[in-house]
Specification:
Strand content of chain B: under 5%
Helix content of chain A: over 70%
Low-confidence stretches of chain B: none
Mean pLDDT of chain A: 86
Number of strands of chain A: 0
Distance between the termini of chain A: 56 Å
Order of helices and strands of chain A: HHHHHHHHHH
Number of domains of chain B: 1
Oligomer: heterodimer
Number of helices of chain A: 10
Number of domains of chain A: 1
Mean pLDDT of chain B: 91
Structural class of chain A: mainly alpha
Shape of chain B: elongated
């Protein structure tokens, strides 16, 4: 197919798509036009029923906790998938071309003082902020997922600061694996605990506490924390899997 | 809609072609990260702080980071292949 026919075929298809798109846009309801009853009902009753002031998380970790369980395991499964994809290749590389690694030793750029100082300064703030976001999901916007991702970026900051040894030590620790697995399993265990009380799976059976307290809203806060653990562990593992080869080489170059 | 909402929508609309039109993967990642922040700002202005937070962490941080890591890995793979051919 020549470039010209390809362009004309594209233009015809694009014109057809544009027509459908414009037709769809014209029928869109106006901004803020919400017709379903559930949104109004949930914003009315969630604070009284669940003692959680962030209704988004009351929905995520309670009213539709079962869906969130599935979403969490999507992340878990994808981390496992990356693990499986990268593992055999790296093993064979280690065995076959050990000498090749010397080629890359010279390519590492020196870390500037500005980068090192600013990453080291921001690291503590990031950890506190991540823990805050993950533990205050029931009170303010955020929750385990967002907090977990913030926490997972701190090892990358360590790596950016030029401290490959610490990066290796943090990400290789058994604690990361335990955090990921405990986080993923904890969600299910909390759900099963509800069964022991004679309630349905993932029913909020823990005492709700005072609205606005850190330890309030029952299982919402606990599930948020386990999701935070799982996400932190998962993303730290992901970065380690991809960066492992480079970091190991840098460490070998140093010693 | 308020002026602020219109402005955030226009910013997102202006930034999206920027991501598509930057051809070099490395600069595209930076553009994508910037676009992610603009999207987060838009969500925030439309009163969805929860979504905005998720968007910042995933769209502006983790997604560009994962693409950068993948690019690094591909580059090293190519370099290795080239050196093997030279030998």
């Amino acid at each position: 197919m020549s470039a010209r026919t390809r362009t004309s075929v594209f233009l015809i298809a694009a014109a057809a798509l544009a027509c459908i798109f414009v037709d769809g846009l014209l029928d869109l309801p106006p901004l803020g036009d919400y017709r379903g009853p559930y949104g109004y009902v949930v914003t009315q009753v969630a604070v009284y029923e669940r003692h959680a002031t962030d209704i988004v998380n009351a929905i995520n970790y309670d009213y539709r906790a079962f869906d969130t369980l599935g979403e969490e395991f999507i992340l878990f499964a994808s981390v496992v998938g990356v693990f499986l994809l990268f593992r055999p290749e790296e093993k064979s590389k280690k065995a076959n071309h050990k000498g090749d690694d010397a080629d890359f030793d010279g390519e590492r750029l020196p870390v500037s003082d500005a980068l090192r100082v600013s990453t080291e300064a921001i690291m503590g703030v990031m950890i506190v902020f991540g823990v805050y976001i993950a533990t205050h999901g029931q009170l303010t916007p955020g929750g385990g997922f967002q907090g977990g991702v913030v926490l997972a970026t701190t090892p990358i900051l360590v790596y950016l600061a030029g401290d490959a040894m610490s990066f290796e030590r943090i990400t290789d620790s058994r604690l990361v694996k335990i955090a990921e697995c405990a986080g993923a399993a904890g969600y299910g265990v909390i759900g099963i605990c509800a069964l022991l009380f004679g309630a349905h799976f993932l029913t909020n059976v823990v005492p709700l506490g005072t609205t606005g307290d850190l330890f309030s809203s029952g299982t919402i806060a606990i599930i948020s924390a386990t999701v935070g653990l799982e996400v932190t562990g998962g993303f730290v593992q992901l970065t380690r899997i991809v960066l492992r080869e480079i970091v190991e080489q840098q460490l070998r170059g140093k010693s | 809609m308020t002026v602020l909402q219109w402005m955030s929508l226009l910013l997102v609309a202006a930034a999206a072609p920027g991501v598509v039109l930057s051809r070099d993967p490395k600069s595209q990642v930076v553009a994508l990260s910037f676009y992610g922040i603009l999207c987060a700002l838009m969500f925030f202005i439309f009163q969805a702080p929860d979504v905005a937070l998720s968007q910042i962490t995933i769209g502006a941080v983790m997604l560009p980071l994962m693409i950068l890591l993948a690019l690094t890995k591909m580059r090293r793979h190519n370099l290795r292949q080239q050196r093997k051919e030279q030998k």
